[in-house]
C-alpha cells in the first residue's frame, strides 16, 4: 500500500511573526521555517503504518518554493521513502494545492492520503476537504486514531458532542489532529540518510494545473494589544464594569 503525505513549509511555531510595513502580509525574511506541525504528525502516522507492515511506501509531497526541499528532507528523515516537490513561486492557495495533489494522486495512485488538518500560518483547514471532493474519495477529518486493515480505514475523531468512529473503504483522505501521535525525534544518522533519498521536482504546468489565486488579501494587521487589567473594590463594581464596559452580560 502506498501512502501520500503532503507537507507544508511554515514559519516555525516558536517564532513570533511580524507584519510587513505595507500590511501586505507576514514578514518571513530571515525567519526560521519548519515543517507544519500537523503535517509532521501525518508523516509520523504514515511511517508507523509502514513500520507495522500495513504500508509499503510513504511519499512526501510539498508545493511551493525551492526551499521546500528542506521541509521534504525533514519528512524523509522521519521515515518517508521518497519526496516530490511541486515547485512554484506563485502564491498557492488551498484550492491550488488541492488541485496539485489531485494530479499527483492520479499519477501515483496511493491507497491513502494523510495530511495535517490545517497549516499554522493561515489556519485555512481546507486543503484536505477540497482534495477529497476533487478526487471523489471518502474522507475523515481530525483523526485521533487510525487503523487500516482489509482494504478499509477506521478513524476515531473527537467532535463537539464527544467522539465518533468512522469506517471507510480505501483509497481515502485523512486529516490529522494533535492527539493522533507525537512525532519522533529526528536523529543525525536519519538526517544524513535523508540526503540520499530520491527527491523529484515537477512544475504545476507539467501536471496540467492552473494555480492562479482565486482570493486576494487586502490587508494584514497585527491583533490589537491587550489593555492592562484593573482591580475592583467589590463585586458590585465588577458587575457594573462587565455590563457597561465589557458588554458581555
TrEMBL record:
Positions of the Electron transfer flavoprotein alpha/beta-subunit N-terminal domain: 23-211
InterPro entries: ET-Flavoprotein_bsu_CS, ETF_a/b_N, ETF_b, ETF_beta_N, Rossmann-like_a/b/a_fold
Keywords associated with the record: Electron transport, Transport
A Pfam family recorded for this sequence: ETF
SUPFAM superfamilies per record: Adenine nucleotide alpha hydrolases-like
Family, per entry: Belongs to the ETF beta-subunit/FixA family.
This protein's name: Electron transfer flavoprotein subunit beta
Organism: Paraburkholderia kirstenboschensis
